[in-house]
Design goal:
- There is one protein chain.
- The chain is mainly beta.
- It has one domain: Beta Barrel (Cathepsin D, subunit A, domain 1), CATH 2.40.70.10.
- Helix content is 11%, strand content 54%.
- It has three helices and ten strands.
- The chain has a five-stranded mixed barrel.
- β5 and β6 form a beta hairpin.
Length: 160
């Protein structure tokens, strides 16, 4: 698709900045700051204490998510059905295997499903990375601005 076709009306409905507030309602996360990274293919969420368990005959993963800022962060216990174990190139360029989950995401008033890999991002400023696969057909990025969508809409987070 060229620029002329994009301007003809095929743009996604959501314009996001270089950083955005996101919610992951099925995990109980109502707001976490995410770094938007068009260079990263997949989403990544900072998670510790990851463990696989069986539930209703399927593999699930339990983990701790750390939200908030350094002085005021809190840990939340989460669990989700395990989608797969995915090989991902990390920020150091090394291949690592990560648990991957499929879950709804909310940015502003928009909600859709994304794949998220679980990893250690404690050295990173943002607890979540929003990769380009999650944005495809949903959002375009305006990198000169941040937090264009504000905090996720509580009614959308609550869901149907």
């Amino acid at each position: 698709m060229n620029a002329k076709e994009l301007l003809a009306g095929d743009l996604p409905p959501l314009v996001i900045g270089a950083c955005e507030w996101v919610a992951l309602p099925d995990l109980g996360i109502v707001a976490v700051r995410a770094r938007v990274d068009t260079g990263a293919r997949s989403c990544a969420l900072h998670a510790s204490d990851q463990a696989i368990f069986r539930k209703s005959g399927k593999d699930w993963v339990s983990f701790q998510v750390h939200v908030g800022f350094e002085q005021r962060h809190r840990s939340m216990s989460c669990e989700a059905e395990l989608l797969e174990l995915r090989r991902v190139k990390n920020t150091s360029g090394e291949i690592e295997e990560r648990f991957t989950i499929h879950t709804p995401i909310v940015i502003g008033t928009h909600r859709w499903n994304v794949d998220i890999t679980l990893t250690n991002r404690e050295r990173m400023r943002y607890r979540m990375l929003l990769g380009r696969a999650a944005m495809k057909d949903h959002a375009i990025v305006y990198p000169a601005r941040t937090f264009l969508q504000g905090k996720p809409d509580p009614e959308i987070v609550k869901g149907p």
